[in-house]
Specification:
The complex is a heterodimer of chains A (about 120) and B (about 120). Chain A is mostly beta strands. Helices cover about 0% and strands about 55% of the residues of chain A. With about 120 residues, chain B is mostly beta strands. In chain B, a hairpin with a 6-residue loop joins strand 5 and strand 6. Classes of the chains: A mainly beta (about 120), B mainly beta (about 120).
């Protein structure tokens, strides 16, 4: 099946530093990946759509210069939180778009998720 | 604009009983996909079940079934024979864009607010 690996699973960093989170599709090529942010007990909010070889598309209200996204290859997208502050502490999770073989037959396009990264800025 | 609504912040169910988690949606698209995900405390998003807007039958995957009522724009998840391991947060999601081969199928998902399910022994 489609496996998406996200690294690191958790990170603690000092305020003002930058943190890079990687999202890899292990057994398929992903031209499109998505980055979500989730606060405790809340829903996933889409931050941006990452397209291989082109600029990411950011959702309204997401600071492009603060959350840098790079999709340099068909299997890797990175999210860099620059000049992190305590309010950036959150759970970040990526997903990659892939073809999915449905139970009972037929194909579908689906997004497979990484394990998520818990970021704490102190 | 597309919208997903889950009105149950929390639910309790007795072990071995069935439980229904509600989800309603709003979209002007004719073709769309509906998903349910389980998120345990570890944070990973576990795909449970998918329903396409043109699927004539309700989707089933093991103990999970989706009660799809298109006219009412609802896609409720039914978990049969609940187990302690089912305790988690559950999210209903809609895929933006058109069907599998449509160029407008972005794969982007819009999530509901989530329902926390607790299974009692």
């Amino acid at each position: 099946g489609a496996v998406v690996s996200q690294h690191p699973s958790w990170v603690i960093c000092k305020s003002g530093t930058s943190v890079k989170i990687e999202c890899r599709s292990l057994d398929f090529q992903a031209t499109t990946m998505f980055w979500y942010r989730q606060f405790p007990k809340q829903s996933l909010m889409l931050m941006a759509t990452s397209n291989e070889g082109s600029k990411a598309t950011y959702e309204q209200g997401v600071e492009k210069d603060k959350f840098l996204i790079n999709h340099a290859s068909l299997t890797l997208s990175t999210l860099t939180v620059t000049s992190a502050h305590p309010e950036d502490s959150s759970f970040y999770i990526c997903s990659a778009k892939a073809l999915y073989l449905r139970t009972g037959g037929g194909l579908n396009t689906e997004a497979f998720f990484g394990q998520g990264t818990r970021l704490t800025v102190v | 604009a597309q919208k997903i609504t889950q009105t149950q912040p929390g639910m309790f169910v007795q072990e071995k009983e069935a439980v229904t988690l509600d989800c309603t949606y709003d979209t002007s698209d004719q073709s769309y996909g509906l998903f349910w995900y389980k998120q345990p405390s570890s944070g990973e998003m576990i795909f449970l079940i998918y329903q396409g807007s043109y699927d004539e039958q309700n989707a089933t995957e093991g103990r999970y079934s989706l009660n799809f009522q298109k006219a009412r724009k609802s896609a409720n998840l039914v978990i049969s024979a609940s187990q302690l391991g089912d305790s988690a947060m559950y999210f209903c999601a809609m895929r933006e864009g058109r069907g599998l081969w449509g160029s407008s199928n972005t794969g982007k998902l819009i999530f509901g607010q989530g329902t926390t399910l607790q299974v009692k022994p």
